[in-house]
Design a protein that fits this description.
59% of the residues lie in helices and 15% in strands. Strands 1-2-3 form a 3-stranded antiparallel sheet. It has helices at 2-21, 30-37, 43-63, 67-79, 88-113, 167-190, and strands spanning 118-128, 143-152, 159-166. A hairpin with a 6-residue loop joins strand 2 and strand 3. It is of the alpha+beta class. The mean pLDDT is 86. Helix 1 packs parallel to helix 5 (88-113) and helix 3 (43-63) crosses helix 5 (88-113). The protein contains 6 helices and 3 strands; from the N terminus they run αααααβββα.
């Protein structure tokens, strides 16, 4: 029974650390975690446990460990000598936590690492002009591409940018995109 309670408390601690560090929940503090999860543990022992779990979670998150890497990492942590190791129960709780939260933590880290807005969506269409807008008997214009870019950073509201391009401009954009793709391919092949 004590092992089950210890696992629940450690899972709660890991969730609290993730809430504060990755999901920007300012309501979660070390005091709240200690009071709710480890009321009988001394402040010094709680601080040591908190810092150790925070460091382990940071190492796992920054490496975006897959299950195989995580198992190897946790085994190495359990084998550490001199009080720096972890128990099998702690390793199991950390493994369960990471398997359930990996995708969410990864998305939070990606969102935190973006300084500028990113492309959230793109819609486009091609219009053919059949007559002049003034109703004159001029020759119809060529095709026009209309692009709408949806830009946003994280969970902020989106901004929209609308572009109108003629055939020559579309061809220039396509050429530039092909150049970028060739550059990416060249870098990937060298790695």
């Amino acid at each position: 029974m004590a092992d089950v309670e210890a696992a629940k408390s450690l899972t709660g601690l890991l969730n609290g650390i993730a809430q504060k560090a990755y999901y920007n929940n300012a309501e979660i503090t070390e005091e709240v975690l200690k009071t709710e999860l480890y009321p009988d543990l001394s402040q010094e022992n709680f601080n040591a446990l908190h810092e150790r779990m925070k460091a382990l979670l940071k190492s796992i998150a920054m490496a975006d460990m897959d299950p195989g890497q995580l198992d190897a990492f946790l085994i190495a942590q359990m084998k550490k000598q001199g009080g720096g190791g972890m128990t099998e129960g702690q390793a199991a709780a950390l493994s369960r936590f990471w398997k359930s939260q990996r995708a969410r933590v990864r998305e939070a880290l990606l969102a935190q690492s973006r300084w500028e807005r990113g492309l959230r969506g793109l819609t486009w269409r091609v219009d053919l002009q059949t007559s002049s807008s003034a109703g004159q008997e001029e020759a119809p214009g060529g095709p026009v591409a209309l692009l709408e870019l949806e830009l946003a950073r994280g969970s902020q509201d989106s901004e929209y940018v609308c572009l109108e391009c003629n055939e020559a401009t579309v061809n220039q954009v396509l050429k530039k995109m092909a150049d970028i793709q060739r550059s990416i391919d060249a870098v990937v092949r060298r790695s």
